Amino acid sequence: MKSFTEHGLTRRRFLTGAALAGAGAAIGLAGCTSNSEPAPEAGADDTLAETGTADTAPEAAAEPWKVAPEPITDDQISETIDCDIVIVGAGISGLPASMLAAEQGVNVHVVEKAGSYGNARLCTSGFNANLHTEHDIHYDRAQFIADAWSISNGVQGRMSSYGKWFDNSGPYINWLQGIMQSKGYDLVAQQVNGFKVTNDGIGQSGYDSFWTAYASMIYFVDKDGKTLDEGVNPDWTGIMAEYAEENGATFHYNCPAVQLVRDGDGPVTAVICENEVGDFIKFNAAKGILLATGDFAADREMMGYYNRSLLKASTTIAETKNTGDGHKMGLWIGADIDDFACGDCFPFVGVTLDNKRPEGNTSKSYAAFASLPVLMVDCTGRRLAAENLPFQGFSIPKITATPDGAAFSIWDSAWEQKFPADYPRGDYLSMNTAEQLEIDLANGVIFQADTLEELADIAGFDKDIFLRNVERYNELCAGGVDLDFYKDSVWMTPIDTPPYYVSKHIVSITSTRGGLKINDEMQVLDKAGLPIGGLYAAGNTAGSFYGNVYPPNIMGTGIGHGQCFGWLAVKDMLGMEVL
């Protein structure tokens, strides 16, 4: 049997679809120039394969990931496994699906590209679960749907998708909490726990109802009752994988899916995987296949095509193996895909002036005070946005309205007298103390100057632009109303007491959001808008949920709706009731 390499495609090249070349391969963040840092060197097997005939060349040039490789034939299959359901991806969205399928007693197999289940993230999320209502926490359905639509500029998402998540998230969380409690763990709502993350806005000094926000995160609690506010986040994905296996699910690690099997316009009937020794295994699925392979942030060429702004974000991503495998396999058999993707981005990663993170662990992710709602300007020295945008909100203007995706925070030495008394002291991302300020000064992620002119020289601002913007900002502070961006007045403090401080920060993307178009039953749609039989998608592999921005004011939507939708996909496969 020929291996992928003998067919002219290494496994990695087959999955990524094209070499990382051209504008998407590297990103320049230094100052306002177009200079770029070199992309990581390609591995030894990252040779560029032929991608098609002359008939496919125009499409290949623009979107090489859409060009299907030659079908793997039955004589190349080393093993065939018949089952009811195949879950492609043992991550955040695939694991709840595998748990439910196993719990229902069906023959379910989980195939995973990596050597283990996916990493646990900070939380899940949902609405009006028992852990909410027992504390008299209630969310309004209509208000949530309207806000989600408007916050995300929901031009390609469906309002019905938001309603589907809202209605079913409570039952999903109740089910998940019961399983966690049976294992000695638990879940707790953010409002009950009281833990605040950097700039989540709600309940913090300077939060303004001008910016709609939902503190909808639900944290995992370990066996000692500790949670993220005490620096503890249980290995909850491991608990999920264990529960699925205990109930009969079979996991295949280091076994990436490489092709779906579809006969013409018929249903998808199987998925072909490649094991560690290069043999192909065919999984026939009688009831359905769920694509839950994550996002495509690790394929920068693909990411840049679907959202050019995301190329201004740093390359720090949650899962480096997420190269859009599920998206590509779906496209190869006729699935449709969202016109653009948005990113799950964190806005204030502190860097040196040449965009480096300091060595060692003395600096937090965010530099001291730089993520607070102080004056923020772009690389020219021009004020950028309302600095009290909650949670991840400041990411959006940084990657859409700046030349380079960077911004600079400016404050002065009278911060202790000027900041509100209850300003956030810090969390797992930041530490806003005088001691941390000194550490960050030494590490080169904060700079100090005796004059604003000197500060402009250090940061590389256009001096005239910067000084005019500081003057305008100070005038607004004196008037007590931010007529330019309507930041809350409690944070309108003038920059007038030397020495002055400046800190550069960039956006860090954790994943892309958007993917294969689905209906409200999580079935993948073809280009005519019709469901492809036997094929489902959830999490970051699925689309039809977000607009052109990840809704930064609704916390935990990616994990929350991804888990719930994977769970609902299995319910549809099995004919179970959903709301």
Number of helices: 16
Name given to the CATH homologous superfamily of the domain at 343-509: Succinate dehydrogenase/fumarate reductase flavoprotein, catalytic domain
Low-confidence stretches: 1-31, 33-57
What is the terminal separation in angstroms?
48 Å
CATH architecture of the domain at 343-509: Alpha-Beta Complex
Net shape = globular
Helix percent band: 25-40%
Roughly how many Å is the radius of gyration?
25 Å
Please identify the structural class as seen in this structure: alpha+beta
Rounded average pLDDT: 88
Share of residues in strands: 15-25%
Question: Biggest sheet, open or closed, and with what strands and sense?
Answer: 8 strands, mixed
CATH topology value of the domain at 343-509: Flavocytochrome C3, Chain A, domain 1
CATH first level of the domain at 343-509: which class? Alpha Beta
Number of extended strands: 16
Explain what you see.
The structure is a single chain. By secondary structure, the protein is α+β, with helices and mostly antiparallel strands. It contains 16 helices and 16 strands. Strands 1, 2, 6, 7, 8, 9, 15 and 16 form an eight-stranded mixed beta sheet that branches. It is globular. Keywords: FAD, Flavoprotein, Oxidoreductase. Its cofactor is FAD. It comes from Adlercreutzia mucosicola.
